[in-house]
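can u do me a favor
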């Protein structure tokens, strides 16, 4: 039976601020919540994912989080998982969660860059961070995620980062000079569209559920769907045999949660949910780095994949684009200026600029 929380508007506002703070600093782990403490708060949430069910992250990220939460709450918190397009496609997920049509979804923050000026900073500015831990630190300890949630609260939603993952491009054509990159049709999204375009490519957005067909029919010449794991799980290497290094960006996948739905949970279920998502963020990010290496090695050994380093002239164009994008994104709002400063300070501390 769904638990409802009756509050005054003032009380609900206080709860919402506490949720935003708690989402940014939730404990990494706590004892399993079982028995009478949660028996009265049973709930089932429908989750609309941007991942097709074929994507590695549908099971290993969303499925694992849901099963861990159900086990932790002794079956009191269940999730019904919907693959990409079953109810809504990626760009529509923010709106259906904001309106409360479903309580939660998965997406990339770039999908709602028109809704929040810090969205692309949480998605990941290309050409900046080089290692996953750097972005983890910026998101959770230095305040990027909290800055975004300040913007999202009036829209009735909260973002919780699901994992940090690398972005690498795979393509059906070999790139040996900037001329080969010019006009290359690459599936992309968010600030990566500007990044790739600045280097001469012709990026365009294609929903995940339509990506394989777009590649196999020549609508696009290449794509980034994460890196090696994404390319393998989405069968991109069947069409695109060239896998490109270095990492174009460290990026994130995210959960978007309706704040009213979160407030309506019993205190125990809300704590279990927030702690489970936070713990899975760190565990899944680390696991993903290991699986990336395994996936790429398998692609080379068994699928005829060739790992290619982007030529210097393309990398120079991309570096110039990164600086311009960071500057432009930082001018969007006061929160965006703070986000850009987080990037610049950390990159300076790491000796990257």
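np, heres the sequence
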């Amino acid at each position: 039976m769904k638990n409802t929380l009756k509050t005054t508007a003032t009380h609900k506002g206080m709860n919402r601020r506490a949720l935003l703070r708690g989402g940014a600093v939730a404990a990494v782990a706590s004892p399993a919540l079982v028995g009478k403490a949660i028996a009265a708060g049973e709930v089932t949430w429908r989750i609309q994912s941007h991942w097709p069910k074929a994507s590695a992250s549908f099971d290993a990220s969303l499925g694992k989080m849901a099963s861990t939460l159900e086990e932790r709450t002794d079956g009191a918190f269940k999730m019904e998982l919907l693959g990409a397009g079953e109810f809504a496609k990626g760009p529509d997920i923010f709106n259906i969660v904001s309106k409360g049509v479903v309580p939660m979804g998965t997406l990339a923050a770039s999908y709602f860059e028109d809704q929040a000026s810090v969205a692309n900073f949480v998605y990941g500015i290309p050409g900046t961070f080089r290692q996953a831990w750097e972005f983890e630190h910026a998101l959770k300890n230095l305040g990027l995620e909290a800055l975004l949630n300040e913007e999202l609260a009036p829209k009735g939603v909260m973002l919780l980062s699901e994992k940090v993952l690398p972005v690498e491009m795979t393509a059906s054509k070999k790139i040996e000079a900037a001329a080969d990159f010019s006009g290359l049709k690459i599936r992309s999204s968010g600030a990566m569209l500007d990044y790739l375009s600045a280097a001469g490519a012709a990026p365009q957005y294609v929903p995940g559920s339509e990506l394989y067909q777009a590649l196999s029919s020549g609508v696009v010449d290449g794509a980034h769907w994460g890196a090696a794991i994404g390319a393998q799980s989405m069968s991109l290497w069947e069409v695109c045999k060239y896998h490109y290094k270095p990492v174009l960006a460290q990026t994130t996948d995210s959960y978007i949660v309706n704040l009213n739905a979160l407030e309506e949970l019993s205190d125990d279920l809300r704590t279990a949910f927030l702690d489970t998502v936070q713990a899975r963020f760190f565990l899944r990010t680390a696991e993903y780095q290991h699986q990336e290496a395994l996936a790429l090695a398998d692609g080379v050994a068994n699928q005829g994949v060739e790992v290619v380093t982007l030529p210097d002239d393309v990398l120079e164009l991309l570096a110039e684009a990164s600086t311009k994008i960071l500057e432009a994104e930082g001018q969007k709002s006061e929160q965006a200026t703070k986000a850009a400063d987080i990037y610049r300070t950390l990159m300076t501390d790491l000796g990257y600029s």
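The longest helix spans residues 267-302. hope that helps!!
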